[in-house]
Amino acid sequence: xxxxxxxxxxxxxxxxxxxxxxxxxxxxxxxxxxxxxxxxxxxxxxxxxxxxxxxxxxxxxxxxxxxxxxxxxxxxxxxxxxxxxxxxxxxxxxxxxxxxxxxxxxxxxxxxxxxxxxxxxxxxxxxxxxxxxxxxxxxxxxxxxxxxxxxxxxxxxxxxxxxxxxxxxxxxxxxxxxxxxxxxxxxxxxxxxxxxxxxxxxxxx
Length: 205
Prior knowledge:
Elements: H1 2-18, E1 28-30, E2 50-52, E3 56-57, E4 65-70, E5 78-85, H2 89-104, E6 110-111, E7 121-134, E8 139-151, E9 156-167, H3 173-196
Parallel strand pairs: 1-5, 2-6, 2-7, 3-7, 4-7
Antiparallel strand pairs: 4-5, 7-8, 8-9
């Protein structure tokens, strides 16, 4: 009887172990490292304020999850279920650009919101690429942003796509996030150069 009871208990323990619920991974949130500073403007490029709108994105690029792909040419994008940006890139990139432009002294006012009736330079961005790539030998990131600058809803003063890729220093997602920071800074630096070059082409009304 005791032997039977011991066998029954052992079988029950095995069954319970087989039915145990798998442990759910913790959700991890990431944010870009501090932005590289733009060269400081000697004087504001114009008297107009600058408004940076929330970036637009289509499909998975509008989501909060980190995006990855295997191979640069596969075209198949996937998202990590438990690895997310602290803010969706549409908002995170907007906030990063606003802060960098404010610190540069390029305008007396740089903000993320102005009344539609206010005469201003308005910057709009579209996320075209924002993903981690495993090319079989390591990891890198690809960032492509289409940037548009308008004055008072008129013809665009800038309408161009800026791209950058950066190799991650390792296979961890922390290394990938650091590479994203470098790539975004390269894109914004190229855009900033074009924005500064507009000096003289914009005017207050």
